[in-house]
Structures are given as C-alpha cells and as structure tokens.
Amino acid sequence: MSRQSHISRRVAALAVSLVLAGGAAACGPKDAAGGSGGESSGKPGAAGAPQKGGTLTVLNTEPQNDFDPARLYTSGGGNVPSLVFRTLTTRNREDGPAGAKVVPDLATDLGKPNADATEWTYTLKDGLKYEDGSPITTADIKYGIERSFAAELSGGAPYLRDWLVGGETYEGPYKDGGKGLDSIVVPDDRTIVFKLRKPEGEFPFLATQTQFAPVPKAKDTGVKYEEHPVSSGPYKVVKNTGDGETLLLERNENWDPKTDEERKAYPDRIDVRSGLDAAVINQRLSTSSGPDAAAVTTDTNLGPAELAQIGDNKELASRVGTGHFGYVNYLAFNPKVAPFDNPKVRQAISYAINRTSVVNAAGGSALAEPATTFLPEREAFGHTPYDHFPAGKTGNPAKAKELLKEAGFPDGLTVTLTHSNAQNRQTGPEIATAVQQALAAAGITVKLEGLENNAFNERRWDAKNTPGFFLSRWGADWPSGGPFLAPIYDGRQIVTNGSNYNHAQLNDPAVNAEIDEIAKLTDLAAAGKRWGALDKKIGEQALAVPLFHPVYKRLVGKDVKNVVISDWTGVLDISQVAVK
Questions:
Q1: In a domain, 246, yes or no
Q2: Closest CA to 383 of 394, 396, 374, 395
Q3: What are phi and psi of 35, to 5 degrees?
C-alpha cells in the first residue's frame, strides 16, 4: 500500500462497512448459500429453472455514488458495476469456496508471468465489443488504468501505484502530454504487458479491479464519465440520477455471452433504488408485493431482531442467503504504549477474553463466528488453525491473573479501551462493553473511551497517536492472505504521515522477508499455505486478539431464482440472479 493511498483505503473501509450495514457478524452457519439455525437446508430463492426476462429491482441503503471504473475500489466494482464493467480477470461466480477463485474475463487466461513474476502478459479474447459495437482493445485497457492515476478520479485500489514501474510518480493521462505509462506496453490490439517494480504472484487477483476495465479514450469525459460509462459488460447504463441514487440498466446488445462464461445476465432490466432505510428494505423483501417480489439488496443485512422475527417461518427462512467474506474483527495493541509494551500483559488479555459474550454482542451465533486466527477460516486465505492463548468459550481469567502477576501487576491493572460510538456491533460500544466485562473477571479494569466514528478512525490510523488498546477490523481486497497480513504487519508499510494500518508498528525483518518471498509465488495454493504459516507465527507475539469473523444474512424477494453466494464477496452475486 502506498503512503499516498490512505484516502483510497478509507473508501475501501467504508465500502466494507456498507456490506455490514444492518447487522453484524459471527458463529454458526458454515455453508455459503444454504444455512442452519432455522434456515432451509437448500439454496435460497424460488424453485424452478432460471429463465431470461423481467426486471430485477435492487433495494439499497447507500447510493452508487461512484460509477467510474477508476474510482471504484472493490473487485469488479462490487456487485452492480460488475454488470457494466468487464476486467482482464474476474471472480469465479460460484457458490462457496469455489467462488474464491480468480478466472479469466476479457483475457484468455490468468496472465503469463515471466520467471520472477515481475512482468505479466495478457491476451484478449476474440470478438469483444463495447455497447456501441466498436471493438475493445488493449489500448483501451491501458488508458483505463492510466486515467485511474488522475487526482480527480482517485478512490480506487492503491496497488497499481505501488506495483507498476513509475507508478509512484505518474499523474495520469490528463497531465502526461500523451506520453502514457511506460510500464504498460501494448504491442498490438490484443496484447498487453505489465512491468512491475517487484515480484507479484497475485497479479491475477489485482486484474479483477475495475481499474482494468477498458475505457475508450475518445469517449472519456473525465469526472462526468460516470454518468454514462461505456459498457463492456452485459448491461449498459440508461439512467443515473441523484448521484447514483437511481440507476437503470438495460441489456447491452453487443455483449456476446460466448466471450463471458461468468455473467448469466438473466433479467432484461436492473432497476436500482437507493437511499432507503434498512428496516424498510427488509420489510419490503419480506412482504414481496408487486415489483418487490423480484427484488434483492446488495448492501443490507438482516439483524438479530429480524432473524428472530423470521424464526420458524419456513417460507421466509427459505429466502435467506448466508455468506462469508474475508473479514476479521479484533482487539489491537500498540506496544509502544505502556503497559502493552509488556508481552505478558497482551497475553493476559488474550486469555481473559470471553468470545461467547463478544459473539452475543455482535448479534449472536447466527451472525458471528468466534475467531482465534487473524486470517478468516477459509482455504482461499491460507487459513491455518491456531489458538496460542486458549481462553475457551468464556475466557480463562485464572491464567490471565497468573500472567499479570508475572508481568508485575499482582493486584491487576487499569487500561483504556478506545472504540467507536457508532452502534455497529463491530467497533462500537456493544463489543467494547463485552470486552470490559470479560477483563474485569481477570482483575483488569477497563475504562471505555468512545469517540465519534470519524474521530475514532482518524485516531486508530494515526501512527503518532495510536491508542494503546482499541477495537479494529480488517477486510480483504481479494481472497488471499496477502492483502490481510501485508498492510497490517509489513514494517515497510508503516505510515507516519497518513493512515497507518500496521497498528503494532511491527517492523520485523523476518516477517518482511517472508512477505516478499510469498509474493514471488505464482502458485496461489502454495502461497496460501505460506500465508497461513506466517499468520500463525505472527500470532505468537499477541499483537492482536482476534474476536470474530462475520457472517452475512440477506433476504431475497419470493420470485428471485438462482442465488449464488461465493466466499469472495460473501453476498448474493447479482450477475447470476433470475426473476422468471
């Protein structure tokens, strides 16, 4: 992550928080699309074979403010934008773990690396066209990437600025006098080559980002491009009002399904309505009257109260989709602040934590899975089980007191826990209070410092003023251990003049070297095992206390078919949905 990219990461953090709106996290259902705990054991959604036709309605709380591929952060732009923007690679649109794989999209394969993965070459498929029938070329992909460097189009993922040779100083095509970025080479209309500053075996994951969507230079209107971006996907934008509050997508007749194995594009139209209250959305989906029978949401979860209302209603339960996304909620330590500079104090807190009470505070076992590892419990991330400080289900206060005595605090100690005042069941007062009560049993008095959410985020990301003890969370940019561990524990990514995510300010040469070695691997399965082993090794230092991994529960309208929920996003994939 570049030192200039803190604004981008804030956008990402916000995007992830929107995924969680309406409910929080953790322990219970293990399947990605079916369920347990009162849900139907089959896939959610209406029965019958999906057919083409009809209008899919999308009911959301947050408007799609950014519809420019340069400014979108999430892979494929998330859900709705992935219907308009195709990229060199994309996520595999399948249920569960299979959906955490990266697959070709505009490209014929996942890219061909050179010997040390510092150069990646892609070839485009034949017959690719924009909505106006003109051909998609690699020059358009090069230009689309270059415009993402323009200051006025900031907001996208920061990796290209870090990874591409010359990317750290490039200012975009509006200022380069037509020169372009030399590290992106286009020898012909179907070939594109990327030259990197260092080995990056996970470049195929990066190529799913919407910055890799083609943009024809002649159609670029700068900051106004988002009003009518040129479609390379199965749908085109025909209306965008209220800064993304209302979107209407219709079929792109020049999209050829023979070139796109991932997007099913069943509905004729996608009608997106945003700015709605979460409770209203879930009520409308539950009732499923009129157009709402063919409706979904891409940003609103069911909360504990709503799940309780569904209860034994088998019809409603059959319409609840369950998913998992690469995400962890945790207690963070800043070892530069006493008494957290003492490893035994950090270990004592790790032993004292009561994960049952934390899970309950997060919404209950239907919405949160207790965590003892930093990496999510998914193979794609390289998850390796460990529990260095076994606290059991309700904490181990006796062991915590023993360690406190060894640390020089036989009579206990008083610490301050910084948290957000937002009622979000993640970093807010509900979780903070659960932690406070658990630590009290071990003789640790916890004073709660609640901050307004923006102030809280500024504080926890400020290397010069990071609290000694605070609630935090992290989500993956793609399903791998790399975007989880590198920003949090790579010492070279410590930022002193912007947003810093290495909360412990760990700068261990051995950790840094292992991150570099794993980055060289183009065998993603082998890389996953190394990420898991690194997570386990770092975990021995008690620099964080993993609390829980979230689970997402979302309702669909009664006529919605073909619900697919992958471990990449953890939520319904709109490109697979049918309403007839």
A1: yes
A2: 374
A3: 170, 180
Domain count, the chain: 2
Separation CA 480–CA 186 (nearest Å): 29
Give me the CATH number covering residue 392. Answer: 3.10.105.10
Q: Which of 64, 78, 86, 379 is nearest to 207 (CA)?
A: 86
Q: How far is CA 352 from CA 12, 339, 344, 401, 569, in A?
A: 32, 16, 12, 9, 32
Is residue 306 situated within a structural domain?
Answer: no
> Which domain covers residue 535, as residue numbers?
327-552
Strands (E), 295-425: 295-296, 320-324, 327-333, 368-370, 413-420
What single string gives the DSSP state of each residue in 153-164? G--S-SHHHHHB
Residues 91 and 158 in one domain: yes
- Cβ neighbors of 431 (< 8 A, separation 6 or more) are 329, 358, 361, 362, 419, 425, 471, 547
Can you read off the two tokens belonging to residue 411? 């009579």
pTM higher than the cut 0.85:
yes
- Using left for φ > 0, alpha for ψ between -120 and 50, and beta otherwise, residue 382 falls in left
Same domain, 113 and 257: yes
- pLDDT means per 10 residues in the chain (580 residues)? 35 34 28 32 82 97 92 83 97 95 98 97 98 98 97 90 95 93 98 97 96 97 95 97 94 98 97 96 97 96 92 93 94 98 98 98 96 95 97 97 98 97 95 98 98 95 95 94 95 88 96 97 96 98 97 96 95 96
Could you identify the residue written with the tokens 């309208």? 557
